[in-house]
Amino acid sequence: MIFLEKEGALIAKRQGETLRIEPWGKNSLRVRSTMYPEFTGRNWALTVDDNCKSDKTAEISITEREDGPFASIENGKIKATVNFAGVITFYKDEKKILREYFRCYGGTESKESRCLKYINRDYKPHVGGDYRITLKFESNDGEKIFGMGQYQQPYTDLKGCILDLEQRNSQVSVPFAVSSIGYGFLWNNPAVGRVTFGNNYTEWVTEASKELDYWITAEDTPRQIIENYTEVTGRAPQMPDELLGLWQCKLRYRTQEEVLTVARTCKEKGVPIDCIVIDFFHWTVQGDWKFDETYWPDPKAMVDELHSMGIKVMVSVWPSVDKRSEHFYDMLEKGLLVKNERGGLQNYDYQGDCTVFDATNPEARDYVWQVCKKNYYDLGIDMFWLDNSEPDLIKYDFDALRYYMGPALEVSNIYPQCYSRTFYDNMKKEQKLPVVNLLRSAWAGSQKYGNVVWSGDVPSTFEALRDQIAAGLNMGLAGISWWTTDIGGFMTDDVNDPDFRQLLIRWFEFAVFSPILRIHGDRGPYDIPPLDNRDFGGGYLHTGQDNELWSYGEDNFKIMKDQLNLRHELKPYIKSLFEETSKNGSPIIRTLFYEFPNDEKCWETYDEYMFGSDYLVAPILELNQFERQVYLPQGKWEDIRDGKIYDGAQTITVKAPIESIPVFRKK
After folding, report:
1. Is 109 a catalytic residue?
2. N or C end of the chain: which has fewer CB within 10 A?
3. ∠ CA(659), CA(664), CA(667), 5° rounding?
4. Diameter over CA atoms, the chain
């Protein structure tokens, strides 16, 4: 191994590999490795200004040990050492926190078997192309791992989990992990891959890449880890006060009259809504990005009336482009559509023969924005629902697609972030208010582009509700604090089923104590006839049953209306949470250990959470459950329902009638 210091970085070269370790933010290091002559220069998620790269000059040492040359680089609390075989070990305040897994003759730091011939960084070349790169770390016994985005599973602690680094409907890969032993780790690579947090070792895999790239920070608390991470990847802008209440949505409002009728009825019934959402197929065909005039004859007048009632208007925009679209062949000729590696153009087949526009191409982003600006934004539309933003595909065959930025295997996880920038970058130039849009996917750093990420088309089950708690907590720990769900779940067979209605109420009660309160869903049964017999346009596609608060009977209406009133009472507090996340990246819904890192019980309790620093929320996650146990950390806690005070550091049993879930305020 040949070591040298260059421009404040530690450089190491061996057998064709170049390794670069440099300070990048407070108590943090960036590590890159390549078998190519040069690094790509892409910073991926590390896109904040260069002044965040380092807050001090790193201490670099190059020495000799008995077994060969040895080097170290130190930036505040974190230090990395590299032995003669290139094995990296990380320390926090001189205590080992992470070491690459290397079990091979010559260079093994472990006292265990070295005849296995496992190496730490394994490059396997694709014929005529890039590398499949595998990075291994030794596992730490007793360690817990959190973050990594949104996976539809009940596990908040990810130790022992295998996670596909792929964007799918309801699965959001945001590859930043928070460790219970005091470090945060960003896999700074948008390639398709996989991570295994095994008990024997941790393994990161990228299916196709030119280089290995990761970032690591060392701190004493999760709060400090998240602050360091969002310092170098960005933080959310300030959420406008007028969006902290209810967002009204259903599948689908088919006409402008339906939208106006709902808004007027909300006003009559005393249901304040901040936003109403016009969902998919208000258009002609996918890729036209405009209202179907048959059912939306005067959208400007509609928007003006909604604005007069203090309601923001959001429309759904999909990245899919039907071959029948008026823009398809123009975009095809200009190279603005995703390319297939082999045969055909169809990548999406819902209601048409479609592909998707290439959001990684700046020219494609500008093209789509200009169409949407003319047909939506200039009419007064306030926000965009960027659905299918993974993008959704017939089959997630990532090796079959190629983007402007590179093969899909190499770059596809960043697609939703690029898609969001189609609107964020341009809306930021057009308006003074912060940009807020709704997306179904995200990647590391997406938080700074005004993205509210929702958890996708999840089923209407208590099992799915439980999974959303884990998803929301881990999204927050991955830096995505603007997060929401479809209240009641998306896929409902029968709105008249009393079990579903109970689920809806429990989901609503949880959502009151989440970042964005948004009701949505595809409500069956599907017995509403279409508006016309065309095979395209806004009238032919099915719609779901009514999904307004009064749609589920008077008793349930009263409960949800009371809960909405509670949300409005909390608005000043919720505003402070959005201000905090803009300031330091703190999640809005938080694991208990985020607020109480010294309480071991909080590192093991995942069926309750903190809503900011003041409220502990214990959602009901089972059918016909009307009481539950709640762990209260150290301190005094007040049940907000009856004012009763409890001592902390104990588990209590409390009632949970259908009208409310247990919520405690820290005294």
Report:
1. no
2. C
3. 145
4. 82
**Whole-number pLDDT of residue 191:** 98
Residue 205: HSE in the Cβ half-sphere, 13 Å Cα cutoff: 15
Please name the amino acid found at residue 170: S
Q: Single out the catalytic residue among 213, 390, 486, 639.
A: 390
If pLDDT is split at 50, 70 and 90, which confidence band does 55 have? low
User: Model-level pTM greater than 0.85?
Assistant: yes
Strand ranges in 15-94 using DSSP code E only, listed in sequence order: 17-23, 28-34, 59-65, 68-75, 78-82, 88-92
| C-alpha pair distances (Å), 82 with each of 2, 3, 6, 219 | 11, 9, 16, 21
The answer to whether the beta carbons of residues 149 and 175 sit under 8 Å apart is yes
The 10s digit of each residue's pLDDT in 14-54 is 999 999 999 999 999 999 999 999 999 999 999 886 556 65
Instruction: Say if residue 604's pLDDT is above 60.
Output: yes
Give the Cα-Cα-Cα angle 332, 338, 339 (nearest 5 degrees): 85
| Residue 392 annotated in active site | no
Q: Give the alpha-carbon dihedral of 507, 456, 422, 400, to 10 degrees.
A: 170
The per-residue pLDDT for 52 is: 64
The mean pLDDT value of the chain amounts to 97
* Set 207, 288, 322, 387: catalytic member: 387
- For 51, residues 6+ apart whose C-beta sits below 8 A from its C-beta are none
Give the active site residue among 5, 122, 166, 457: 457
Catalytic residue flag (residue 387): yes
DSSP string for 369-394 = HHHHHHHTGGGT--EEEE-STTT--S
For residue 33, which of 164, 188, 140, 179 has the smallest C-alpha distance? 188
